[in-house]
Amino acid sequence: MAFHLRGTVLPDGVVRDLWTLGDSITFQRPSVPADTVADGGFLLPGLVDVHTHPGGAAGDEPAFDPEVFAAQITAHRDAGVTALRFPGLLGEIPGELREAPGSPRMITAGRWLAWVGLSRSAAFHTVTDDLVASAVAEAKAHDGWCKLMGDWDFEAPPVPYELLRAVVEGVHAAGGRVAAHCQSAAGVLGAARAGVDSIEHGMGMPQECVDLMAGHGTSYVPTLTAFARSAPRIEDTARGRLWNEGHRTMIRRVREAYDAGVTVLAGTDSAPHGNVAAEVLHLIDAGLPSGTAVGAASWTARAFLGLPALAEGAPADITVYDADPREEPAILHHPRRIMLRGRIIR
Ligand SMILES: [Zn+2]
Questions:
Q1: Residue 150 Cα to ligand 1 middle (Å)
Q2: Cα of 240 from ligand 1 centre, angstroms
Q3: What is the DSSP secondary structure assignment for residue 204, as one 8-state letter?
């Protein structure tokens, strides 16, 4: 099946004709007939949410529900999200969904790994006394990523630096990457020093982490949407004040990290699924240039996941918008056309 699209291709900003042949993009007019499905507008390689956890079943015990998972990745897709990273999933991606024609591209990191020494584990954590071996195994068993809890309780110490460093060395030696959940100043500092590949959340991030992240090539996924949602509900207690201070600090660090050359990426960590456009707006509020914030949820995030953007031979994921999202980022909520794996979704 061949399709033709014409519009302003981002991030280059050049008006071009492009065609899709099956699940492949070409800028050369094909010899087969191709329906024109977009003429005008702004073309992106789709949106990306690099931090989302679909599939959680309702109930007291954490459980994976394949039907919920399917519905939630569909919600992402129908919002124009063509690629997803799951830094923590309660179960395995159902095989028939992973490469289904209507499924966004998916990168999973397996379970949430928690070092046995963290003071109190959550029910969704997979607690291990051999964090290095578990992290290497998760990265090998999934898409090259593992997810670990760098800390958990605000009051308790994080994973010791030496152990975190051993995890990073072990996973990197196996060709994998490490995503670290951090929500305390000490936790973020340990992860930044250890050179993890992505810091998730980063509440209360000490200033020195910015240069450490830039030096290690660590990406930053602040998940501002999730924190903005919780902020109004935080009570005026010692813990609440710590939370609020950490939240304000992480917002400042987003811009400082960008200025230092850190790749900042868009992840929602939150329901409703399919809401990564809101994260782009939060990143802009935090001081990211709007074009950079759009890239954080599109071409930059694809590069981070090893997926090309709108290039010759690239996978045929394309979303089309009536306005330039770099000028009007809220337009990301309203894709006019969604193409995934070379098929028209909308
Ligand atoms: Zn999360």
A1: 12
A2: 20
A3: T
Spell out the CATH class of 2-45+308-344.
Answer: mainly beta
Distance 340 CA to ligand 1 centre (A): 25
* 49 Cα–ligand 1 center, Å: 11
Domains of the chain, by residue range, sit at 2-45+308-344, 47-305
Ligand 1 centroid distance, CA of 223 (Å): 8
Architecture of domain 47-305: Alpha-Beta Barrel (3.20)
- pLDDT tens digits, residue range 203-257? 999 999 999 999 999 999 999 999 998 887 888 888 888 899 999 999 999 999 9
pLDDT in tens, 307-345: 999 999 999 999 999 999 999 999 999 999 999 999 999
